[in-house]
């Protein structure tokens, strides 16, 4: 059974995560998210440590990295890694690339390249199925 403080911390973390996800593509400061979630930075920090075992900053970083990865894996050919990274608030691209590699074991461009090649393969397979079997002409 959770204590009253544990329940409150869980509610705080849940609210903050909801606000963070709603603002994921916006460049919003941690303090602005705290204000929207209705808590102070100190309370949020304590709640995150108790509930998630990490800090709100690290949670936001990981959330944004996950969104970049998802966008690169699903994104269009036209979107560059830089465009996707900056869309999710990463401004220092060298640091972003290092964080991405540490989180996922590959560079952002490798994710994009792999997704593009998988898309091509699935597209080629779909074309083969729509064309049907080849018929040979017999005289």
User: Which structural class fits the helix and strand makeup?
Assistant: mainly alpha
User: What is the radius of gyration computed over CA atoms, rounded to a whole number of angstroms?
Assistant: 22 Å
> Uncertain spans, ≥5 residues at pLDDT below 50?
123-127, 135-139
| CATH evolutionary superfamily of the largest domain | Homeodomain-like
Please work out how many helical segments DSSP would assign.
7
Task: Please name the CATH architecture of the largest domain.
Answer: Orthogonal Bundle
Helix and strand succession? Answer: HHHHHHH
Task: Characterize the biggest β-sheet.
Answer: none
- Taken together, the total number of domains comes to 2
Shape: elongated
The CATH topology of the largest domain corresponds to: Arc Repressor Mutant, subunit A
CATH C-level category of the largest domain:
Mainly Alpha
- Number of E-state strands: 0
Oligomer: single chain
* Measured distance between first and last alpha carbons: 81 Å
Average predicted confidence as pLDDT: 84
Helix fraction?
over 70%
Into which percentage range does the β-strand content fall?
under 5%
Keywords:
72% helix; 2 domains; elongated; disordered C terminus; Arc Repressor Mutant, subunit A; 7 helices; mainly alpha; 139 residues; single chain
Describe this structure in words.
- The chain is an all-alpha fold.
- It has 2 domains: 53 residues; 66 residues, Homeodomain-like (Arc Repressor Mutant, subunit A).
- Helices cover 72% and strands 0% of the residues.
- It contains 7 helices and no strands.
- Helix 1 crosses helix 2 and helix 4 runs parallel beside helix 7.
- The longest helix is centred in the last third of the chain and has 24 residues.
- It is elongated, with a radius of gyration of 22 Å.
- 19% of the residues are buried.
